[in-house]
Amino acid sequence: MANAATVPAEGQILVDIEDMSMLKDIKKAISLIKGVGRVTVPRRSRRYSSYELSLRDLDEGRVYEAKDVDDLFRQCLEEK
């Protein structure tokens, strides 16, 4: 007696692409394969530079002032 394996109705394949300039051609080639429903590329989250993160800190009020280095250390070491 043979066991019948069930085939999932839908599946996914993850492809790592080293040369992103080929993305359009790779998407086109994959979409031509019989049985492929759609080809989607997830968006990358944008990475902010240190400068941009600093500007966001300023805008959101995450800024501390100290009159000198001793005052800065006192504020940093002070228990909250």
Describe this entry's structure for a reader.
Helices cover 35% and strands 0% of the residues. The chain has 3 helices and no strands. The chain is elongated, with a radius of gyration of 27 Å. The termini are far apart.
Helix/strand/pairing class, anyone?
A: mainly alpha
Roughly how much helix do the residues carry, as a percent range? Answer: 25-40%
Overall residue-averaged pLDDT value: 85
Report the C-alpha radius of gyration, rounded. Answer: 27 Å
Low-confidence stretches: none
Secondary-structure element order, N to C: HHH
The portion of residues forming beta strands comes to under 5%
What's the overall geometry? elongated
The tally of beta strands, per DSSP, is 0
Describe the sheet with the most strands. none
Tally of helical runs = 3
- Whole-Å distance between the termini? 72 Å
Please give the oligomerization state of what you see.
single chain
